[in-house]
Amino acid sequence: MHERSKAFSELRERFKDRFTTDAATLIAHAGGKAHHTPANPDAVFFAESTEEVALAVSLCARERIPLVAFGAGTSLEGQLSAQRGGLSIDLSRMNRVLRASASDLDCTVQAGVTREDLNQALIAEGLFFPIDAGVGATLGGMVATRASGTNAVRYGTMRENVLALTVVLADGRVIKTGGRARKSAAGYDLTRLLVGSEGTLGIITEVTLRLYAIPETSSVAVCGFPCVGDAVDTAIAVVQQGVPIARMELMDRRLVQAVNAYSGLSLAMRDTLVFEFAGSAAAVAEQIEKVELIAAAQGAVGFEWASEIEARERLWAARKDAFYAIVAQRPGGRGWSSDVCVPVSRLSECILHAQAALDTTQVPAAILGHVGDGNFHAVFSVDPARPEEMAEVARINSEIVDKALSVGGTCSGEHGIGTGKIGYLKRECGEEAIDVMLALKRALDPFELMNPGKVFDAGDPR
Amino acid sequence: MHERSKAFSELRERFKDRFTTDAATLIAHAGGKAHHTPANPDAVFFAESTEEVALAVSLCARERIPLVAFGAGTSLEGQLSAQRGGLSIDLSRMNRVLRASASDLDCTVQAGVTREDLNQALIAEGLFFPIDAGVGATLGGMVATRASGTNAVRYGTMRENVLALTVVLADGRVIKTGGRARKSAAGYDLTRLLVGSEGTLGIITEVTLRLYAIPETSSVAVCGFPCVGDAVDTAIAVVQQGVPIARMELMDRRLVQAVNAYSGLSLAMRDTLVFEFAGSAAAVAEQIEKVELIAAAQGAVGFEWASEIEARERLWAARKDAFYAIVAQRPGGRGWSSDVCVPVSRLSECILHAQAALDTTQVPAAILGHVGDGNFHAVFSVDPARPEEMAEVARINSEIVDKALSVGGTCSGEHGIGTGKIGYLKRECGEEAIDVMLALKRALDPFELMNPGKVFDAGDPR
């Protein structure tokens, strides 16, 4: 619908084949990795600098052309579909680490840098960035969805680890939302407002992140439990006792089966916790001793140690692929993931409730959890072509969310709202809080050009 | 100016002596603890619940009466002066701990609870809340100024430790900005937008906070250094090596002198670091060993251990009173504190620069620093009746801020902007970012009733 716009002509002329309306490229930018309905943009622009993004945004703003920022396309709630067409600005070529400081434990990267590439660049300095969202995710995308992952129990989420952003606003102006100080009480926290805004308030082009020293030593263990409640109670006790565990992940029985099949492991078929301990040798030894005692008290069935790097990496790679392992249980399946996060004291109850709900369906599904944080996912492998099945999974997801909200939890721990959880967000926050969010949205994006149709039904453009 | 308003009549009638225009009470709510010009409100209302705050706000909103939320009056940047008169809503009677959960490591308190009272209530559960702003500060006030203090190097600031807020908006509506989940990716981060908003976007009435287990053991040490650079380099190395130190505070030579006099200590007259180590016995032993090695390499002059609880508490009490120790160096003096925070790699340079600036004045002054975070304060004891002196201190403060900004730092690490740092905020953020903040402000407070004249010159009411 915007093919003939002046903005598009100008971008095409100026950037040649970095601006494209090629069908395959449009489809690749329609946001269709999960179960949500994809929607093609009218064009894709591969930007290489903040200035280029600002130019594209200001050209489009003049003609009220909607904009979607695109990183790696790994988001899980339909964040990238171009609901009203317009321009998809692909930031994957903005993939330079601009600076990293071992003294200050921080770095600045372009938004298209992936976490894997950043860590590759940092390894020689003995540093790393811990937050691990989906494989291949860009750091800009991780900021936009307020991502977290398996290391959050120790290091926090993107909320805690972003120091500053460079952002292109809806009218093309560029702001920096902070400096390099590790803390600040200077004015409104624009950084945190942008973290988790899912492209609806501006386009993030550069990110300043906290870094951490690679721990002296680390060690990984797996252990099974008689039932999922025992596993969760173990995790809760570990957190309560203040053990600075690096990771602590739940894989329920169903997931162990899927992961064994997908990644060629041979884990015992039990509700299982995977632990990573990290720190100085003495600290790790002490952590392990405490955790073994706690787990034993909950009936843990033997610790297995993966002390060799290779075995550890294979195990974590399998865990990272868990989403795909579930989806692959069915040819052509698409992933549909719940993402609730609840107070840990209510976690057993919520996971048992979810497991019972999963028992009511034939759709392949399993549960994984960042249990130290109270966050877990029921992941289904669905066939979007079967409306009855989609309705069934929607009903189960809705039950899982309702249960989480009833105990003070949230519908989204780390995937964001996108198009998939708009209804849940309303239920969770209430009308007044949604009104406040919309007032902020309209203040910064009066024409609703920035990723329209995400986070909330923002109504018609004005 | 608002004495005859309907709102005031209604509040007086309904709340009797909890609504007052008594002169002494007005003066006590004029915000005049530091060097800023105080300004009386027209009336003070002692609220006892969120509903009462909402009622007062909606009554005042109807007649466009400005509102200032008041906690304990310990803020340091003139946040509490009633620049345009109106109603000061005193929240100090909202002092109940509403719930605390050892399983979830969280609690919900009314905004008027002080950190000291909260920790008193938690001690039996083996829990504590670490962030320690000024003595007697309320938790609502600490949220509003995004406070931190001596424990931030280990536990973060209010930014990282608030899970959710109950807020009365400018029109009297009440929202909750989050639930009890430890992480969330559900919509805009209204919690973080309110943290540090200094009463300009809404009035915080309830706060849900993260809690921590009281460490098994802790230990305090003091040591002097040949010069301030060596002390700072020690602190930086401790952070870089990932030692999970609980606190690490710099007192420069001048401050040691002031503190010895004010608190009856007999510390050696050197640039000094005070360390607190906390954790399991083994972890603390390991930390101490590492820190002693690092300090020795920087020429530290002997560690002195304060292992008895009494000695430790005396030392920390003296450190907490440092601001008053400096101010008391002159009869009738008022405190004026800089609050810059810089990347730690530039900290030595910035502190040396500040010390040189202090050498140019006769005004009593000294430097203290939360050096693990890069945050330090030059505190002056000024006489507001001497304009030349005030101009001199303003000039020195301005130089300290300019230096901080030139290395990527911030004008405020933890005290906020209030009326005192409005000009610095502009310099730091630039016009576009200030415009964004103002757009947000206007979206939530279109008539500029919420703490007007703070954070920025918001222009005339509309």
From TrEMBL, chains A, B:
<dbReference type="InterPro" id="IPR016164">
    <property type="entry name" value="FAD-linked_Oxase-like_C"/>
</dbReference>
<protein>
    <recommendedName>
        <fullName>D-lactate dehydrogenase (cytochrome)</fullName>
        <ecNumber>1.1.2.4</ecNumber>
    </recommendedName>
</protein>
<dbReference type="InterPro" id="IPR016169">
    <property type="entry name" value="FAD-bd_PCMH_sub2"/>
</dbReference>
<dbReference type="GO" id="GO:0008720">
    <property type="term" value="F:D-lactate dehydrogenase (NAD+) activity"/>
</dbReference>
<dbReference type="InterPro" id="IPR016171">
    <property type="entry name" value="Vanillyl_alc_oxidase_C-sub2"/>
</dbReference>
<dbReference type="GO" id="GO:0004458">
    <property type="term" value="F:D-lactate dehydrogenase (cytochrome) activity"/>
</dbReference>
<dbReference type="Pfam" id="PF01565">
    <property type="entry name" value="FAD_binding_4"/>
</dbReference>
<dbReference type="InterPro" id="IPR006094">
    <property type="entry name" value="Oxid_FAD_bind_N"/>
</dbReference>
<dbReference type="GO" id="GO:1903457">
    <property type="term" value="P:lactate catabolic process"/>
</dbReference>
<keyword id="KW-0285">Flavoprotein</keyword>
<comment type="similarity">
    <text>Belongs to the FAD-binding oxidoreductase/transferase type 4 family.</text>
</comment>
<keyword id="KW-0809">Transit peptide</keyword>
<feature type="domain" description="FAD-binding PCMH-type">
    <location>
        <begin position="37"/>
        <end position="214"/>
    </location>
</feature>
<keyword id="KW-0274">FAD</keyword>
<dbReference type="InterPro" id="IPR036318">
    <property type="entry name" value="FAD-bd_PCMH-like_sf"/>
</dbReference>
<dbReference type="InterPro" id="IPR004113">
    <property type="entry name" value="FAD-bd_oxidored_4_C"/>
</dbReference>
<keyword id="KW-0560">Oxidoreductase</keyword>
<dbReference type="Pfam" id="PF02913">
    <property type="entry name" value="FAD-oxidase_C"/>
</dbReference>
<dbReference type="GO" id="GO:0071949">
    <property type="term" value="F:FAD binding"/>
</dbReference>
<dbReference type="InterPro" id="IPR016166">
    <property type="entry name" value="FAD-bd_PCMH"/>
</dbReference>
